[in-house]
Amino acid sequence: MSGDVNTVATVYGAILLGTCIGCGLTGVLFVQSVLYFKFYPSDIVYNKCLVLAVWALDMMHTILIITSVWECVIVNFDKPELMDLIPRALGLSVAVTAAVTFLVHCFFANRVRKLTKRWYYAAPLVVLAFMRLFAACVSTTEIIRLRHYSLFIKPFPSWIFTVGVTLSASVEFIITVVMVIFLGRSRTGFATMNHIINSLILYTLETGSFTCAVTIASLICWMVMRHNLIFLGMHFAIAKLYANSLLATLNTRKRLRADRSFSSQRGEADVYPASMNIHKSRQSQRILGPLSPTKATHLNVNVETTVVSVIDDPCDDYDMADIESKGCDTACGTEKDSKEFLP
Question: Which regions in the chain score pLDDT beneath 50?
Answer without folding.
Answer: 267-321, 327-343
